Amino acid sequence: MSVMGSTAMRFDEEQSMLLDYARSFCADRGGLSVAREHLETPLEYSPEVWDEMVAMGWTGIGLPEELGGSGLGIGAAVPVAESLGKSLMGTPLLSTLLAAQLLLRADGESVAEVLRGIASGDAASVAELESEDWSALPTGTVIDDAGMLQGQKRLVMDAQSARWIVVTALLGGETALAVVDANSLHDDESESAIRPRVLIDHTHRAADITFNGVAPTAVIAGASVLTALRDYRMLGALLVAAESTGAAAACLDATVDYLKTRKQFGKLIGSYQALKHPSVEILNMMDSARSFVYHASSLVGAESLDKDQEVACRMAKAQATDALKFAGDRAVQFHGGMGFTWDCDAQLFIRRAQGAQQQFGDAQHHRQRLAALLLDG
Q: Rounded to whole angstroms, what are the CA distances from 359 to 266, 317, 353?
């Protein structure tokens, strides 16, 4: 099979410049102390930071220039996602980029004005889940005969920040996309339409949404919807993998700093092999994840994803979230009893790991599908 010999990993000058600037910006605007400031606030980020991201054109990454985007391609978002993860910044950027990709790949021309708005800074999100199954299609959310959206979606990431909600729904028995202006969910009669959910990862926000006779701004139907939805899920897995790889790097840095300062029995605990070896394992897992992530980013493009690209995205997601999960677990253990307390920064990483593991399917979900892709012919 061709994927076994696929070793593409391109990193051009534009991506390199984007990575350098994203690292600098996120380190300056984010970090553990900033993340803690927003743990209990309605939004997990500062609106001023979002405005700066918009000014840099980050919301238009992946969109063509005629729609107000940068034309760099969605692979260029990977360095930004990694930088966001390393600074534990929880903005609606990834949700916005993914919603734009779903619309663009389904029928970008019919929602060109919405995509231009996203490129100009309108946050967006995708309302897909009706159950815990990430691979399920909608069953309870429908567009009725009057053209109104009816149903409920669960755990819609960044719903509180979004201007546009892209909703998967049934139209005449087929899966369609309904584009909803979130402003229509905030009128006096819909005060409870968006209900915030408490996530294990307090650096991100999500909500359940009830659509009770909501008029969509646009509806996209046809065969392209299922193809676009499959691509959206794979690209989502890739960007979460990039974000998780960055978070794993930050977790390792914080853990090593602690190992170099904490003493027990008169010695720095970092001198004990029982702690050295797991730290090296974190590094190896993180480096492997980064290779998978940038390999996948080198393959994905504007066209519908093929088998090799799907394999690359699934490999990246499985490896990266496992690496972050292991790093967060070791960070808690290495901090001893303090590691289990809310005040210890290790908690931020293990909670981020648990949340990232579930987004777009956990490692087991992806490895089960990789087995079929790689072994069934």
A: 43, 10, 10
Answer whether residue 11 shows pLDDT above 90: no
pLDDT at 48: 96
Whether 3 shows a pLDDT value over 60: the answer reads no
Backbone angles phi, psi at 303, to 5 degrees: -80, 165
Token pair of 325 as six digits = 């999960």
Block residue for tokens 């409870």: 192
Pick the CATH number of 224-375 from 1.20.140.10, 3.30.230.70, 1.20.810.10, 3.10.180.10: 1.20.140.10
Element containing residue 331 per DSSP (H, E):
helix 307-334
267: pLDDT strictly greater than 90: no
Residue-wise DSSP of 46-80? -HHHHHHHHHTTGGGTTS-GGGTS--S-GGGHHHH
Residue 261's CB: how many other CB atoms inside 10 A? 10
pLDDT grade for 14, boundaries at 50, 70 and 90: confident
Cβ neighbourhood burial of 11 (10 Å; 0-12, 13-18, 19+)? middle
